[in-house]
C-alpha cells in the first residue's frame, strides 16, 4: 500500500524539536566560519519514514577564516556529512533531539535553522514525487506538530551539480497563539535524505525573510 499515515514517532519529533538534549558522539568535524556582525509515483510511506527519523550527531566546531562568510552571516560546513550553509550572525548552536545541527536566536525562540539527515534508498529527491506533493507531505506531516493549521505557500526546484533540491515555504498556525513562517530545502544523495529548515514568527517575517532565504539557498552538498 503506497499511502500511510505518519508514524507516531515521526509526529512527535517535530513537537519535541526544542525540548530534549541530543546524544552526542565523538569523531566528527564541523568547521564554523564566523563573520563580522554587520513524475514518478510517490511512495509516501517511505518519504515519511525517511524524513522523520533523524540521526543525532556531535560535530566539533573549529574556528576558520571569517573572510569566507558574508557580512551578517556565519558559515557552517560539516566535513564528515558533506554539507554546508550560512546562518545569521549571532545565532548560537544548541542541542536538539533528532537534528544533526541546530543554530537559533537566543532572544527570539521561533528563529532557528536546523539540518536533519536520514537514510534512504532513493537516489534523488525527485524519486519521492513532484515538488508540490513532497512539500505538502513534509510540511503537514513531518515538519510541524499535530493540530496545527499548515499552508504551503510556494515551491522552487533548483539543480546544483546534477542534484535536485526542493525548496518550499509554508506557515504553521497554533490556534490563536502564534504563526511560524518557515522555509525548507531537501535533497537526497548517496543514501541520505537531507532537510534544512528555518523560520521565524509571522510577526518578524518581513524583517527576517531575506536572511532566512539566504540560509536556504546557501545549503548544498559538498561531495
What can you tell me about this protein's structure?
This protein is α+β, with helices and mostly antiparallel strands and 223 residues long. The protein has a domain of 149 residues: 3-Layer(aba) Sandwich (Protein Transport Mog1p, Chain A), CATH 3.40.1000. Helices cover 19% and strands 38% of the residues. A hairpin with a 4-residue loop joins strand 3 and strand 4. The longest helix has 14 residues. GO terms for molecular function: calcium ion binding. This is PsbP C-terminal domain-containing protein.
At the first level of CATH, what is the class of the domain at 73-221? Alpha Beta
- SSE class: alpha+beta
Q: Say what the CATH topology of the domain at 73-221 is.
A: Protein Transport Mog1p, Chain A
The percentage helix is: 10-25%
Pfam families: PsbP (PF01789)
GO molecular function: calcium ion binding
Organism: Chlamydomonas leiostraca
Domain PsbP C-terminal: 71-220
Descriptors:
five-stranded mixed beta sheet; globular; alpha+beta; disordered N terminus; 223 residues; Protein Transport Mog1p, Chain A; seven-stranded antiparallel beta sheet; single chain
Compose a concise summary of this entry.
Pfam families: PsbP. By secondary structure, the protein is α+β, with helices and mostly antiparallel strands.
